[in-house]
Design brief:
Length: 135
């Protein structure tokens, strides 16, 4: 079992490194691959694909894959889901990658791909759940 955990941990570290190479990439809702922009779900889809994990395109679809993770039990590379004003409370509208140490890496608005803290009021209050897709 430890070998499998080490493999997952290494993959998670690689996912965070991959995500970091996109820091500052501008946000655009409905961004297309190769456009030089990301929306939240294209960002996660791209980062995971570069590490051999295929995810569906939308945040809502991504919330349907993987294994449920309870609040605070996240591991690096877990997908965290949130509702937004546009989707309304109770409807997934945003996805982020848990980066460890209470941080998420994601994209929305300005400055594009960035780090935030999961304990920030916005993210804490709109949090809907998390999924683990790294095995």
């Amino acid at each position: 079992m430890p070998a499998a955990h080490d493999k997952a941990s290494n993959l998670a570290d690689n996912i965070i490194r991959t995500a970091e190479k996109y820091l500052g990439t501008p946000y655009r809702y409905g961004a297309k691959p190769g456009s030089g922009y990301f929306d939240c779900s294209l960002f996660t889809q791209t980062v995971f694909a570069e590490n051999g994990i295929q995810l569906p395109r939308s945040s809502r679809q991504q919330s349907q894959v993987g294994t449920y993770v309870r609040w605070g039990e996240w591991e690096k590379g877990d997908l965290l889901f949130f509702w937004t004003r546009s989707t309304g409370e109770g409807n997934v509208g945003h996805v982020a990658i848990y980066a460890g140490d209470g941080k998420i890496i994601h994209t929305w608005g300005s400055p594009g791909v960035t780090y935030d803290r999961i304990t920030d009021r916005t993210w804490r209050e709109t949090y809907m759940g998390a999924k683990r897709v790294i095995r």
